[in-house]
């Protein structure tokens, strides 16, 4: 592959893979006399021949100037001000070259404001990892590598730009990002970076709950949820990132979350304490398979249901409905309140779990009497969760196929607001604005059908 030089090696990235709107943004900025590059994750992913999740642009233009250049743009953020350029529902994040702010308090390196403009070199250095510090110049087909990111991409290494201890103290969320990239790309965390991470895990407690929760969702959605959770455990980040989950898990299993390698092999008589751990790892594996196979993103409700399932598993099928409702509510409170989970996501997780029980009940007249479940707003998510749970448990394929068939034959019907069936107890529910397209739903269903066929 290309050799790295400070000037930037000639590396033709597949521009056909670049979002045309991102190219439009770069070209227009260049035409207006600014410097402009594709930057960060998209350059990394194109170099690795992976499909980028999104495309970001870095430029010498200030946010105000970007705003003036694109009528379809808006300035966002306070802590970190940048412009969003809109193309329909798509957003191209366009940020001004900035420099790492100089902190005044020697004891606390935490960055609270990050709006000091700089040049491309400053902008490369303020980024988190060398593999994320690359710029792509579309005019010369050249990667501008000012942080020796290309050799790290070639070697498969996650390394902070600059002193890792400082970089983690400036922004502890970077530790979770290190885990995310190591897991997702199957890279190793470079030794000095890893040692600094081990020494700084406690700083996570300084991060806002909202940022932490978003990072947890990203870990779960990234297609490497299982490896991410293993790395969270290995590094000691886990109890800082998901304290309420750890507490609940401990009280449920007595052993805490046991690493997969330490779970005995027995399939029939696995000691009880290990069962929640085994189920969680299996659910995470199944979630990864879902993400990678369908290229769909599981909703936050599904992700929360996956975290909750191993904790309530034993009560699930045996408890009377009313008790189960209470157990789920109490467990939800204990898990979600400290993490600051949005009410909407939590409600969806509750609906998924309640629907799940109904969906896996013994086949028979009762289930057939209630195809109305298919018309529910949450049905798609419940079906996604069912597919993942069936895969994780290695049983329930016929139930899954049954619901899949019902879903396929159902005529779309607008759900009545608060129309109660016995799962909802007639509680009024706010309609969740689905952010998934019909095509997305269909694709999820297709995958579900394929999986049902395999089982
Ligand atoms: P993904 O594929 O998950 O989107 P990404 O690398 O694009 O990965 P983003 O969160 O989209 O990650 O951020 C875009 C870029 O912004 C990163 O590549 C990195 O250069 C920079 N960046 C993001 N978060 C931080 C941070 N906490 N500290 C320093 N730089 C960051
Ligand atoms: Mg990105």
What does the average pLDDT come to? 84
Cα(first) to Cα(last) distance is 41 Å
Strand content: 5-15%
Number of helices: 20
Total DSSP E strands: 11
- What gross morphology would you assign? globular
Indicate how many domains the architecture comprises: 3
What is the share of helical residues?
A: 40-55%
Could you give the topology of this structure?
Layout: H1 20-31, E1 36-39, H2 41-47, E2 56-59, H3 63-69, E3 73-76, E4 82-87, E5 90-96, E6 98-99, E7 116-117, H4 120-126, E8 134-137, E9 142-145, H5 149-155, E10 157-158, H6 164-170, H7 173-185, E11 188-189, H8 191-200, H9 209-221, H10 225-235, H11 238-241, H12 243-253, H13 275-294, H14 300-316, H15 321-339, H16 343-360, H17 365-368, H18 379-393, H19 397-409, H20 438-454
Parallel strand pairs: 2-5, 10-11
Antiparallel strand pairs: 1-2, 1-8, 3-4, 4-5, 6-7, 8-9
Helix pairs in contact: 6-8, 7-9, 7-10, 12-14, 12-15, 13-14, 13-18, 14-15, 14-16, 14-18, 15-16, 16-18, 18-19, 18-20, 19-20
The protein binds adenosine-5'-triphosphate and magnesium ion (MG).
Provide a compact summary of the structure.
The chain is built from 20 helices and 11 strands. With 455 residues, it is α+β, with helices and mostly antiparallel strands.
Output the keywords:
455 residues; Beta Polymerase, domain 2; seven-stranded mixed sheet; globular; single chain; alpha+beta; 51% helix; two-stranded antiparallel sheet; Hydrophobic Seed Protein; disordered C terminus; 20 helices; binds magnesium ion; binds adenosine-5'-triphosphate; 3 domains
